[in-house]
Design a protein that fits this description.
InterPro entries: ADH-like_C, ADH-like_N, ER, GroES-like_sf, NAD(P)-bd_dom_sf, Zinc_ADH-like. This is NADPH:quinone reductase-like Zn-dependent oxidoreductase. One of its GO terms (molecular function) is oxidoreductase activity. There is one protein chain. The chain is of the alpha/beta class. It folds into two domains: 195 residues, Medium-chain alcohol dehydrogenases, catalytic domain (Quinone Oxidoreductase, Chain A, domain 1); 127 residues, 3-Layer(aba) Sandwich (Rossmann fold), CATH 3.40.50.720. The chain is built from ten helices and 15 strands. The strands form three sheets. Strands 3, 4, 5, 6, 7, 14 and 15 form a seven-stranded mixed beta sheet that branches. Strands 10-9-8-11-12-13 form a six-stranded parallel beta sheet, sandwiched between helices. It has a two-stranded antiparallel ribbon with strand order 1-2. Strand 11, helix 7 and strand 12 form a beta-alpha-beta unit. Helix 3 packs across helix 4 and helix 6 packs parallel to helix 7.
Length: 337
Amino acid sequence: MKAFEVTDNYSIDSLALIERDHPKLSPRQILVKMRAVSLNYRDLLVVNGIDNWKPPVGRVPVSDGVGIIAEVGNEVTTLVVGDRVAGLFLPNWIEGKLTPEKTVNSLGGKAHDGVLQEYVVFEESAVIKVPSFLSDAAAATLPCAGLTAWHGLIEKGNAGPVSTVLIQGTGGISLFSLQFALMIGAEVILISSSDQKLELAKKMGVKHLINYKSIPKWEDKVMEITNGVGVDHVVEVVGSDNINRSIEVVSLDGTISVIGLIDGFYGNINTAKIMSKEIRLQGIEVGSKEMFARMNKAIEVNKIQPVIEKVYSFDDARHALSSLQKGAHFGKISLTF
């Protein structure tokens, strides 16, 4: 079977397309023939060998994908051949709060191969069925981007119909957050550097749009829109010192969900304002299987369609990752087999 592996050069261009033996199953495992995968910023950190995300040579990258079960072990009881499933980003986080034991073996990272290969073996408990009305390319976007957005805004953020939500950018997590916020009736403010992307967001139902290139002090515009109160919830995808700008626009007793790190891993943060404004600054780590199930139900009931910029072929994975790295996409980038 074909698979992409990280090489010792740690770059997109040096990803190696190789042939691997077909994996064998233990009694409680399943073999999934992959149909589609979807890319996340974290995949770039893995492939390029950045900081704590640097994997061993030979690692198969990419965490998010969907496929059809081709074979089941003789002790598997909840799944059958032909079921369409997605792998869990954190296969040990089935339910409850996050614990150290539940953070290990994340797909496509330092400790475990990912899904950029034709066949993948999963433990029976480490997959979940996906909504049948979604295409393979769309369903593949759910395990990381979809679930992280759901966790941050709905599960841990407790956003509701009277909430005002500021969303930064138009990548996968940002647009899922946008869709979930509109789903619950929240008021959405979206910032982007592209008028074209803002126009696309307008067509999705967003009323308050700010181009942060033409309005560098976008914080003032956010405060104007909210009549000086600030927003109830910020979906913070930039990280680093940008968190200070989120602190400026969040309301008293508001929430900032730190979901992305595209501007850096460290920053000088105004802790005094976090205290004086009683801000909840919360980190969001993807989510559990039980959260995934609740998200799937909401997606099915509301017929939410993930936003996909482009679908590449599996063999064109390097070009797909390069496109992600340029950061010009609106929504998700997927690959089909």
